Amino acid sequence: MTNTATETRSVVVEREIPYPPEKIWRALTQPHLIEEWLMKNNFKPVVDHRFNLSADWGGVDCQVQTVEPNKTLSYTWDTKDLESVVTWTLTATSTGTHLRMEQTGFRSDQQPYYRGATVGWPRFLAALEEVLARMD
């Protein structure tokens, strides 16, 4: 028997990106670059570092969970009553990098958050790709 009150959903967005993991890692971990594709922030790629993401609609409280340079980055993503985790996974390929973003923790009563993430993350990743194209 499953308890539907505790079941959660995830949003996954995957992309093949024609840049090496090291370049993508910079865009995922350098505050001035994060601001270009995601939100204003005070991020540091240090486990347990607490940081905030802010936009005109409000903000997100986060804490770094995992840092494996050029491979994996995860952090909590808490806003209002949503407590979730965002995990980035970078896998080198023959043509660049397979980038996978997964946000976990959407409860069944959090459909607006889930729908927002389903629409929002592909847009954020498109903006990330634009930033990568401009980077040295």
TrEMBL record:
Pfam families: AHSA1
Domain of life: Bacteria
Domain Activator of Hsp90 ATPase homologue 1/2-like C-terminal: 19-132
Assigned protein family: Belongs to the AHA1 family.
Protein's name according to its UniProt entry: SRPBCC domain-containing protein
Lineage, top ranks: Bacteria, Pseudomonadati, Pseudomonadota, Alphaproteobacteria, Hyphomicrobiales
